[in-house]
């Protein structure tokens, strides 16, 4: 079985997906923001959606989810969303879920840059008491965000908490940096009951994510220390790798950690 794939976005993630050249995955077209000198890349949505896709992977940000999500699902394709923080908008989330159901398609939230979602979603079946996700990145990763209005990032000498509150608020304030927290929330306690702590940390040169949860199952703690993407300091190398894995599984006879 060959899966006909569309990509929305051609940055740090999209280029890695293309370069992977996955078996039984045919990359049909890529939707980008600006014209490119490549027949498979188009900045025209109508031209992109004129193709038939089995799945479309979004790698372009919250706005792409809002603008194109419904059209993907209505066109008969599954929709893989990396910018999960877009679903802090409950109306958007509900609308896309309803569209997926009406068209017998799936809204897929890949693990992307965060591990342990399999454990967390399993634990949620028995009931969770609390979930906290902590995201630590060096100050340069928070440039261009509201953190710049809270602290002088260039003068930072020690770790500084720039946000501590519900995922719904944090993922909305930092749309390029903490999409993983929204995936954690949807897998577990929800956007309003999952705590998010965001730290600008000048002592590190990686992205550190910590996930702690407790409930009827017991408790667990997960920590990842991820190398930073050369293309985009706001994201880690693992995000592109994980997206390749998720797309590969669309056509694979073996699915691990579903």
> In the CATH hierarchy, what is the superfamily of the largest domain?
NAD(P)-binding Rossmann-like Domain
Counting DSSP H or I runs of 4 or more residues, the number of helices is 9
- End-to-end Cα distance: 19 Å
What would you report as the Rg, rounded to the nearest angstrom? 18 Å
Low-confidence stretches at least 5 residues in length (pLDDT < 50)?
none
Which percent band covers the strand fraction?
Answer: 25-35%
Largest sheet: 6 strands, parallel
Shape descriptor reads globular
Query: What is the mean predicted local confidence, pLDDT?
Result: 93
* Named CATH architecture of the largest domain: 3-Layer(aba) Sandwich
Instruction: Tell me the name of the CATH class of the largest domain.
Output: Alpha Beta
Under CATH, the topology of the largest domain is which? Answer: Rossmann fold
Would you tell me the structural class of the helices and strands?
A: alpha/beta
Count of the separate structural domains: 2
Tell me the strand order in the biggest sheet: 3-2-1-4-5-6
What is the chain-wise order of helices and strands?
A: EHEEHEHEHEHEHEHHEEEH
Share of helix, binned: 25-40%
Number of DSSP-assigned strands: 11
What this model shows, in words?
- By secondary structure, the chain is an alpha/beta fold.
- It folds into 2 domains: 122 residues, 3-Layer(aba) Sandwich (Rossmann fold), CATH 3.40.50.720; 117 residues, Dihydrodipicolinate Reductase, domain 2.
- The chain is built from 9 helices and 11 strands.
- Strands 3-2-1-4-5-6 form a 6-stranded parallel sheet. Strands 8-9-7-10-11 form a 5-stranded mixed sheet.
- Strand 1, helix 1 and strand 2 form a beta-alpha-beta unit.
- Helix 3 runs parallel beside helix 4.
- The two termini are 19 Å apart.
- The model has no long low-confidence stretch (mean pLDDT 93).
């Amino acid at each position: 079985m060959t899966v006909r794939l569309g990509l929305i976005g051609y940055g740090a993630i999209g280029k890695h997906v293309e370069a992977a050249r996955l078996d039984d995955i045919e990359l049909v077209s890529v939707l980008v923001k600006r014209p490119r000198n490549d027949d498979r890349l188009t900045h025209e949505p109508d031209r992109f959606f004129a193709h038939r896709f089995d799945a479309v992977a979004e790698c372009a940000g919250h706005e792409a989810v809002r603008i194109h999500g419904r059209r993907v699902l209505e066109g008969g394709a599954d929709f893989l969303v990396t910018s999960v923080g877009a679903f802090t908008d409950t109306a958007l989330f509900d609308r896309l879920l309803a569209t997926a159901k009406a068209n017998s398609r799936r809204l897929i939230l890949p693990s992307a840059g965060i591990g342990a979602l399999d454990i967390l979603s399993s634990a949620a079946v028995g009931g969770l008491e609390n979930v906290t996700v902590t995201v630590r990145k060096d100050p340069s990763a928070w440039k261009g965000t509201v953190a710049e209005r809270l602290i002088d990032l260039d003068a930072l000498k020690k770790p500084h908490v720039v946000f501590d509150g519900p995922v719904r608020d944090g993922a909305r304030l930092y749309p390029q940096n903490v999409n993983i927290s929204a995936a954690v929330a949807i897998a577990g306690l929800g956007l309003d009951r999952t705590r998010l702590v965001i730290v600008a940390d000048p002592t590190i040169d990686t992205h550190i994510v910590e996930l702690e949860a407790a409930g009827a199952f017991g408790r667990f703690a997960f920590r990842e220390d991820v190398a930073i993407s050369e293309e985009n300091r706001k994201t880690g190398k693992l995000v592109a790798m994980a997206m390749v894995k998720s797309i590969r599984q669309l056509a694979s006879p073996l699915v691990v950690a579903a």
